[in-house]
Design a protein that fits this description.
By secondary structure, this protein is α/β, with parallel strands linked by helices. It is built from eight helices and eight strands. It has a single domain, classed as Aldolase class I (TIM Barrel, Alpha-Beta Barrel), CATH 3.20.20.70. The chain is globular and about 45 Å long. The structure holds D-xylitol-5-phosphate and zinc ion.
């Protein structure tokens, strides 16, 4: 049974002065909202803290797919869960005991993901795969929206899907970076079931049309629709 396809617009490319309105506009057609958290250390950019998530939680019922590009997820990931994030994803190489952090976040009731940068092999997170709800495969270097999609990461997606088939894992496979109507199809064909799109949605005047076009291209790329 194929997983439902999920589109998670990244609010990184939205107008931060009008976040609630920007989210309300896409809410009728998308499944999740992707919240990019950057600390100025793991990546050279600063974005959103738990207080923003706490306020946004009251403005929408979309699940928050919170992507922590930070060096201290052990301190801050629980704060994002407490603020209302249904799912938190961190880059596990920054923590001494990522499995313990996954367990702690699960105990708080959150779904938990781990993310791998373009240069990271799947083997880097293989021992975590039985324990996660989401594998986020970065298809750009983390840090900024609006970069070009890196198709060379797609074999890793296929490898992860094969690992899941062989080992009975339940995690979703998400792709993040440079996704739009031109690139989502190849990602879905490779095995992605969840896709982030920032500039391809919030960088266009008609966000609904952009989101619908990405979802249509994704469904068209899957034999089962
Ligand atoms: C990059 C972020 C992405 C980014 C995607 O570090 O993790 O989520 O916002 O933006 P686009 O879709 O514009 O590449
Ligand atoms: Zn992201």
């Amino acid at each position: 049974m194929p997983r439902d396809l999920i589109l998670a617009p990244s609010i990184l490319s939205a107008d931060f002065a009008r976040l609630a309105d920007e989210i309300a506009e896409v809410e009728p057609v998308v499944q999740w909202l992707h919240v990019d958290v950057m600390d100025g250390h793991y990546v050279p950019n600063l974005t959103i803290g738990p207080a923003v998530v706490e306020h946004l939680r009251k403005a929408t019922s979309l699940p928050f797919d919170t992507h922590l590009m930070i060096t201290d997820p052990r301190t801050y990931a629980p704060q994002f869960v407490a603020a209302g994030s249904e799912s938190v994803t961190f880059h596990p190489e920054v923590d001494d005991d990522p499995l313990d952090l996954i367990d702690r976040l699960h105990e708080m009731g959150a779904d938990v993901g781990v993310s791998i940068k373009p240069a990271h092999p799947l083997s880097m997170v293989e021992e975590l795969l039985p324990h996660i709800d989401l594998l986020l495969v970065m298809s750009v270097e983390p840090g900024f929206g609006g970069q070009s999609f890196m198709p060379e990461v797609l074999p890793k997606v296929t490898e992860a899907a094969a690992w899941r088939d062989a080992n009975g894992g339940t995690f979703r496979i998400e792709i993040d970076g440079g996704i739009g109507v031109e690139t989502v199809g190849q990602a879905v064909a490779a095995g992605v079931d969840t896709f982030v799109a920032g500039s391809a949605i919030f960088g266009t005047p008609d966000r609904i049309a952009a989101a619908e076009a990405i979802l249509a291209a994704a469904h068209a790329a899957r034999p089962s629709g």
